[in-house]
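Hi Y.,

Following your request, here is the sequence exactly as I used it, all 103 residues.
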Amino acid sequence: IADLAITRGGAGTIAELIDNEVPAILIPFPHAAENHQFNNSLHFAQVVGGGEVYPEKDLDGKKLAATIETMLQNGLAEHKEKIQHYKNHREGKPLSEIILGEL
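Below is the corresponding structure, written out as tokens. Let me know if you'd prefer a different format.
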């Protein structure tokens, strides 16, 4: 259980953030094949509305601290609502149902 995640942008991570409705600050792994983590992160931030994306090279401690503070003060409820809306209106099964269905 978390109010805010600070994480990379792998597909599994994005799916779990959506499934658990957790806003996030995403720092995509810069050496991922075909830049897929950056693209996943942009989808989460721009399409889902679930957080902020910072390329690793553009992020430092001060910027990260300021983003955390801003999101905690202003953005978590809005981000959670956007994630819930996306989750409730998307096609397909949630990741947890897919995994549990295969056990």
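The first strand starts at residue 5 and ends at 7.

Thanks again,
Q.
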